[in-house]
Amino acid sequence: MITYEERLARAALTRVVEPGDVHAGRVLRRYGAEGFLQRLRDPADDPEVFDGTGAKRVAGWRLRAARAEPRRDLDTIGGDGGRFVVPGDAEWPRQLDDLGDTRPVGLWARGPADLRTWALRSVAVVGARACTPYGAHMATTLASGLAEEGWVVVSGAAFGIDGAAHRGALAARGATVAVLACGVDIPYPRGHAELIGRVAQQGVVIGELPPGSHPTPSRFILRNRVIAALTRGTVVVEAEYRSGSLVTARAAARLGRYTMGVPGPVTSGLSAGVHELLRGEATLVTEAAEVIELVGDMGRLAPERRGPVLARDLLAPDTARILEAMPAGRPTPVSEIADRSGATPDDTLVRLYELHSLGFVERQGDDWRLTKTATEGANARRGGT
Question: At what angle do helices 22-40 and 4-16 cross, to 10 degrees?
Fold first, then answer.
């Protein structure tokens, strides 16, 4: 159980250290968040506690620690309907622990979706900002195909391929997660304010930086490790040789996730980086079915889907209500399930994707139906066969 003091200390540290700072990660692992913050605020503390970190870096930490106001940040995110998720919370995606000392201190989040359950069946779709019409078409098609099969599409909300991936998932009334390199209350790029708002309404927007924080070039690169670790695999759709998308893909490969690339014209510089990946660690894919063939049996982040991950009786009340509203034996539209449960259509869709990740429901076109597992579970609860 995470104490309020621990949460408060971690919130403060998101103001103090930059995302992915391995020096900070070592100190955090050794002393915990409260111990780290206490030592920063004690100017007489022995510098050896900082594991040989440079004096200039520690001085910067101390200065920012003195200015941090974590209670205000937690109040701000709460006022926006968001939350601060930390290691040890039920919602924390445990695959992020694979990042070791570069693991996020915590994640600021906006949106109704449960990040842990959505991440169990997620794929990253990333690529060039200045993409071609071909690249945008492929990203949209891949994302909508993945969403139609019940997979969550994760991307960075940038122009180009990222935006096309989010829109493709949303157009299919599917699930999507945006990972930002700034505060989750700062829509960036500004031209995607409406898109990011839609993701926050229907899915979840997450970031390592506290409210009000603005992006920097280094934060975009560091953000990519979270996208790579959060998902089962990364698909790159168009990327030049020097591209942040290749950073994401290579981080995914180092973490043991699948890396995939969509081929393009050999005469296009925007395909050069993808083709370089395909000559090495990546697998060529051209449609959602090929992506699912790879990641569906990966088994690194969750056990094989032979039944529910959580017992039916342990579902959150709002999620259980959606499950109870599902009629047996036939596919049902989201609107009907929403009417039967008393929830909004958007919230119903969020809960259906959680239930899909846990093996209770499956998607058929625009409709949803109970799986055999869910039906057998309901019979068992009633004492039936």
Answer: 120
Residues in the chain: 385
Indicate whether 219 and 147 sit together in one domain.
yes
Q: What are phi and psi of 74, to 5 degrees?
A: -65, -40
In the three-class reduction of DSSP (H, G, I as helix; E, B as strand; rest coil), residue 200 is classed as: helix
DSSP secondary structure code for residue 327 in this structure:
P
Strand-strand pairing, 122-127 and 233-237: parallel
What is the DSSP annotation of 101-158? GGS-S-EEEESSS-HHHHHTTEEEEEE-SS--HHHHHHHHHHHHHHHHTTPEEEE---
Domain span holding position 10: 4-68
Same domain, 33 and 172: no
Q: Amino acid letter at 238?
A: E
Burial class (CB in 10 A: 0-12, 13-18, 19+), 351: buried
Q: Are residues 11 and 120 in the same domain?
A: no
Let me know if residue 100 belongs to a domain: no
Walk along the chain (385 residues) and give the pLDDT tens digit of each residue: 789 999 999 999 999 999 999 999 999 999 999 999 998 988 665 556 676 788 888 889 999 999 999 999 999 999 999 999 999 999 999 999 999 999 999 999 999 999 999 999 999 999 999 999 999 999 999 999 999 999 999 999 999 999 999 999 999 999 999 999 999 999 999 999 999 999 999 999 999 999 999 999 999 999 999 999 999 999 999 999 888 899 999 999 999 999 999 999 999 999 999 999 999 989 999 999 999 999 985 443 333 444 444 446 678 889 999 999 999 889 999 999 999 999 999 999 999 999 998 889 999 999 999 988 777 655 555 444 3
Distances (CA, A) of 301 to 1, 229, 240, 297, 310: 22, 10, 30, 10, 15
